[in-house]
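FORM 7B: Structural annotation worksheet

SECTION A. Query
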Amino acid sequence: MTQEKECMSCRSVLWILVFCGFAMNYMLRINLNLAIVTMVVPHSRSIAAIECGFPIEFNETTIPPTTTTKSSEYLFEDRFKWNEYDQSLALGSYYWLHWLSQLPGGLLARRYGTKIIFGWANLLTALVGLMIPFATNYHLYALVFLRVIQGFVAGVIWPAMHDMTARWIPPQERSKFVSSYLGSSVGAAITYPLCALVITWFNWHAAFYVTSILGIIWFVFWHFLVFDSPSEHPRISSSEKRFIIESLPLSSREENVPWRRILTSGPLWIAIIAQYGTTWGFLTFMTQAPSYFNYIHGWNINTTGVLSGLPHVLRMLFSYIFGMLSDWLLKTKKLTLTEVRKLATFMCTIFQGFLTLGLGSSGCHSNLAIIFMMTGTAVNGAVSSGTLATFVDLSSNYASVILGFCNLIAASSGFLSPLLVGLLTTNNVSTSRILFSNFQQTVESWRMVFSISSILLLVSGFIFMLFGTSEEQSWNNSKSSDDLNTKIDEMQNLREKSETNDKIHEKVQLKKINEEQT
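SECTION B. Predicted structure
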């Protein structure tokens, strides 16, 4: 065979850029989660210090107990007087329309390709991010408006990538490749300490400028190095192209999506339920961790940044290792595809659910809270081998469509979770006083937040354990004979090209041998 030298396969390059793309997506999504800690007038002391009876040192996110209201307003005159409900609006607004563009994202990727949809969505989100400091200084609702725009545009990103995964990655490599989606965790891990450092050196405005500029730089590499399919890639080797095409199931690019059969598919709905639970659990940890550790445990901005970001590094590592384990279990046939997906889903729903209960029960014990939060976030990384991969298993031809439909539902947790936290932890809004008169920013109210998250994780996980499957669905195979002939012709052409290259290689080698003998 012809030995084509390449320092890195095109699939590896794709993994790296997808990984970085999802990292950029989350950097632009969650920079506000930490920045908001230094954007608002802080509490005088942490609730844990008051309820649990331990002292706390003054830092830049707390007001000394001796400071009067008037002097504290002067001390933090550059900050906003947003109560917890206002903050929940700012944090949750990203997800208000985020769900609305999920399904169009899958459909647009099928029509125009993931390169355009995924790449330009990240770029536009970054450009809008540059305007956030100006809008925030104008009015809270201006910030909310830009966050809504960011969420709507970025909604196409996750479902769009499933179309590229189905075109590029053989089934036996999907668990490991989908771990690149968890670049989002590394993005989160980098964003929290990076923003904390930038805010400490400059101000909270700089956090949005830095993350947006990084997103623009990523887009340049994405634009020149990524292509929608192996057949479109100008630099891919014929051996890698042949391997991918022969490994993938026959692709159907029909415009008519079998909506009725999709919407009435029981296995799909079971996977959606599991994905909703794990999304709620993860977003609760990701969005609320900085506020929780700042308000309840009284940590300063730098400590909060590091300890909020570290669990996401563990999540990525866990995802990659568990992905390799899943692929090994499949290749060695120790477990079936469905059993592998159930094992992964068990980790990111049921196991995470118990860890979330532990976080809610840790109360005043900061060390226990750190352990439960880190472990709970880490095991959520198994989602890349669980429900995320399940959608490709159920239907590789319509993977982007069904993931978009799933996120149309699951993305609602992005704004419902912060809204719930806002209602449970504030005593300044009439709605909160009426519905949750016994709750405010206390250890008990946060215990309620984590208990609700745990219940959703456990229920959704048990449902998938009982009824979930990863078997390819019949509605995935509505292919025409033209599609079959096209693939056969393409495979034959690749074989002929490979055989020709082999013959040329053999002639060159024989010529060299003859010359040496002469």
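SECTION C. Observations
The CA atoms of residues 38 and 61 lie 7 Å apart. The chain is about 70% helix and 0% strand.

SECTION D. Sign-off
Analyst initials: ____
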